[in-house]
Structures are given as C-alpha cells and as structure tokens.
Amino acid sequence: MELVDQALSGNRRALARLISQVENDGSLAAQTLAAIFARTGRARVVGVTGSPGTGKSTLVSELAKAYRGTGQTVGIVAVDPTSPFTGGAILGDRIRMRDLAGDPGVFIRSMATRGSLGGLARATADVVQILDATGYDIIFVETVGAGQSEVDIARTADTTIVVEAPGLGDEVQAIKAGILEIADVLVVNKADREGATNTVRALQAMLDLGAAPRAISHHGVSMSVPTQNGQHRDSALTELAWRPPILQTVALESKGIAKVIEAIAHHQAYLTESGEAQTRHRERIKSELEGILRETLLRHLMASLSSSDLNRMVERIAARELDPYTAAETLLAPRP
C-alpha cells in the first residue's frame, strides 16, 4: 500500500490517484479503507445541498476561504452530474472554485454520480474518509443539486446546510416534506435579489408549522418541535431540540459568510453537548455497514447464478408466466 503511505504523508498527487482507485475498484477500496480507518473520525464534515442555481458552489468556495483564513485545511468533495459523453463529472464546481486552486491547504475533488440517486456518488463516503485520514480539518460535501431526493447527505455529514434562493419557487418548496427536513442550517443565498424576504418568511413558516409541540426524529434523535410562539412545553425534550437558523448570504460578494461559519460552530457544539454526535456516528456506521452488506451479498448472489438461469427467469417474467417477486424467491431458494 505504497500509495496509501504517500497520501498520508501529504503527497497530493498520490492522494488524487488513491481516490481515483477507490472510485473505480471496489476491492481496492476495501483494502484502502481498512488501512486508513484508525486515522479517521477527526475531521468535521459539512454537507451543502439544495436545488440547482442556488449558489452552492460559490457558497462553499467562500466558506473554504474563510476557514483557510483561520489556518484550517479544507477538503471539498463536489458531486457533479455524470457526463453523457465520457461518464465522468462535468466539473462545473471546479470552474466556480478556481480561486482555491493554488492553495496547498485546499483539496478539491469532483465526483460523478454515475447513476447513483440521493445526490451523492457511491464512493462519496469513502472519499470523505480518505480526506479525513490525510489530515483535512473540515470537509465540505456538495451534492449534485437534484432537489427533494437529496437526503443521503444527512447520513454522511455532521452538519447539513440547505441552500435556498429567491425566485426559484422556494415558497412552495418550503412547505414540502423532503430536503428541508434534513437541514441543520438554512441559508437563503442571493439575498440581494427581490423576493428574499418572502423566501425567509416561507422557511420560517415551515419551522413554525404546527400549533402543538411534538417529538420528531431528526438524524435518529428524538427532539421537540417548538410551538408557533417558539416555546417548548416538554422539558424532557427541550434539551435535545435544535432549531435550524435561517441566514441570508450574498456569496458572490462574501456577505453573510461569517454568520454561516458561526452557525456551523454552534451546531457542532450542540452535537457534542446533547450527545447527538455519538448517536449520528453510530447511525452513520450502521448505514454504511448495511450498504456494504447489501453490495457484498448481491455480488455473491450474482456470482452464484448462471446466466442461463437468469435469462430463463427473464423470459418467463416477460411471458407473464411468473411475477418478479416469485422469480426472485426461486432464485434465492437453497439448492439441493
């Protein structure tokens, strides 16, 4: 594992090659992660998600500059749509983050989704662990920008920022269940545009929704939701409650960035003090382990099936002689 040793010693070229190998070779990914796992768990992981056009990449770029100003190193994993021509990432995020390109304390990696749903590529979590092990203090994970389905980031990040922008139909989006439910911090970017106040109001209404307090599960932790006047009546749950702040930024002009960084720090402190950090960590491990088990079991199953058996089942299903569920049970049944 010479490449691993070189990456851990600070060789950026080796780090880039190691990430490429992990993306392309599942067996090598397992060996790599086994070698570096003891070094992980130190970085803060911040997810940034939201609809296309909200300015996620610009916001991440400005946040990275601010953290670099304090001497912290920054890793950025930018998940892009898959190119229909090459199968790789379109690299739009690298274009927007070109101001960071010459900074030795910043490492930017664009990744293609390659058909994965949920806003992240299959190997995103692996790449985050590699950046963590190689010593980056804070890691930003920017999702592809597909909209309401991008909830996988909540399983990967410690703090999830949902970015909205005025004029993109957010007044309607704010009352929908989905992406806003994973927000730890809400950011209305491009706040200098007309309609920003309406977007903030819509998000505020979403947070205030419900006349009575109730307990909900957010990232695996039960917490109380405030009533419309902002009061928590259930004292047993109040200590665990986190209400996402709504912040306004103009990322192109570096306005409001300091407040976002402050909100991230407050949320990190809340995770530690409430004990939710450990809960999320265990939930993340459980989710990752289940995913690995699914992939491993499917790989073993497909290796045990002959192509003739599989094709025969396909033909029977196509002829409506057999339904897909019964076919699957037949294929999974123990063989004499």
Question: Could you please describe the fold and organization of this structure?
Answer:
- By secondary structure, this protein is an alpha/beta fold.
- The protein has three domains: about 1-40; about 40-275, Rossmann fold; about 305-330.
- It contains 14 helices and nine strands.
- It has helices at about 1-10, 10-25, 25-35, 55-70, 90-95, 125-135, 155, 170-175, 195-210, 235-240, 255-275, 275-305, 305-320, 325-330, and strands spanning about 45-50, 75-80, 105-110, 140, 160-165, 185-190, 215-220, 220-225, 245-250.
- The protein has a seven-stranded parallel sheet, sandwiched between helices. Strands 7-8 form a two-stranded antiparallel ribbon.
- Strand 7 (about 215-220) and strand 8 (about 220-225) form a beta hairpin.
- The longest helix is centred in the last third of the chain and has 29 residues, at about 275-305.
- The model is unreliable at about 115-120 and about 210-240 (pLDDT under 50).
